Amino acid sequence: MDKALYVAMTGARASLQAQGTVSHNLANADTAGFKAALANTESFRIPGTGHASRIDAMHVDQGFNSKVGSQRVTGNPLDVSLQQNHWLAVQAGDGGEAYTRAGNLAVTPNGQLVTAGGRPLLDENGNPMAIPPHQALDIGQDGTVSIVPLGEGPQTLGVIGRLRVVEAAPERLARGLDGLMRNTDPAQPLAQGGDDALTAGVLEGSNVDAAGALVQMIQLQRQFEMQVKIIQRGDDNAQAANSLLRLGG
Known about the structure:
Elements lengths: L1 H26 L9 E9 L9 E10 L6 E3 L6 E3 L3 E6 L5 E4 L5 E2 L5 E2 L19 E6 L4 E6 L8 E5 L2 E3 L5 E3 L5 E3 L7 E2 L5 E3 L1 E3 L5 H39 L1
């Protein structure tokens, strides 16, 4: 009886944690470049003395869905869509380097190139990218940023820098609590992307399947209810057994 209650309890806990993951995905269904988080459960035998009969249901973080999201043509030169397994390098809150596929960029009043969340974009040297006053801006497929200076003609178009766009397979990255990706092996820096790393004027949407996530939420809710019922039935059986023992005494 104790074993059944333990398994049901840990299963209910894992279901709640999985619901949190699905809720987070649904909340970001409209976030540019967002990659859906993946979650699963696995069994874990509890170590210790005695008979190994207790099995813990563990919630497992399986990373993220690396599938490219839907593409939307915007015509905005500050919107960029990255090729598969390519990421924009940004400066995280701790000053370190992190990565995102959110390509809806902006220029602050002081000329800093940032993401929609305010994270500074880094250039190929790892420094925050600054944009001088300009009347036209262009981001090339290799990440080079060119401008026509304010008050000048189109013939003065010139390159001012290159964005740091890294190429990384999904297993090389892990999502942090701030939603940004980080290199799982800092001792091996990620390589700069090639000449065909991004497309300007196009924005990648979230790859969250909203309808599928809603169905998953319902399944997890029913699974949680079933596990709670098992706990309740186990408690009822334990009380009935205690009553029989008292009568027998």
